[in-house]
Design a protein that fits this description.
Blueprint: H1 2-30, H2 45-54, H3 65-75, H4 80-96, E1 102-104, H5 107-115, E2 122-127, H6 137-148, E3 153-158, H7 163-170, H8 175-178
Parallel strand pairs: 1-3, 2-3
Helix pairs in contact: 2-3, 2-4
Amino acid sequence: MWLKLFFLLLYFVLLFTLARIFEAAVWYEAGVFATQLVDPLSLSVKKLKTILECRGLGYAGLAEKKDVSQLLHKSGELTHGELYSAIKKETEQTEGGAGSGTHFSGEMHFYELVEDTKDGIWLVQVIAQDREALLSKSNWGKMVQKVSQFGIRTGTFNCSHDRRNESWLSEPNNSEFTR
């Protein structure tokens, strides 16, 4: 009887110990220092503005570092984990390019990705044939950066690069153009 009770107690002690070991492993992988607070004044203005963008806050009109850090402090405490994710997001955006998105090669490419799949929301900049884009590359890049935070996919469709337009222009017997 005592032996069964001893093994039952030993089983619970081992179970408790293993649970704590697995919990420690998960805690270590998640980041030991992820919940520690960061002093905003120790960061550069660029990093502070990146964190404010990640939080969805505007910082227009704030020129000094102390004003930006005060706004950040008012929006909540800054942890190492949030700082790490903001810096990671910033480097991904700069490596991928701010204006990165799909460049549609033609009508069929557009239909394959946007119309046929109907997989999400798209913002497409259409550039008329032999014309310049309405938005400059920097403004389009800012737009892409803003809407991509909400899962909106972006693309550019340049009508000058559409192969279908080239074939229509090269056909002299097209009935629509000869009327």
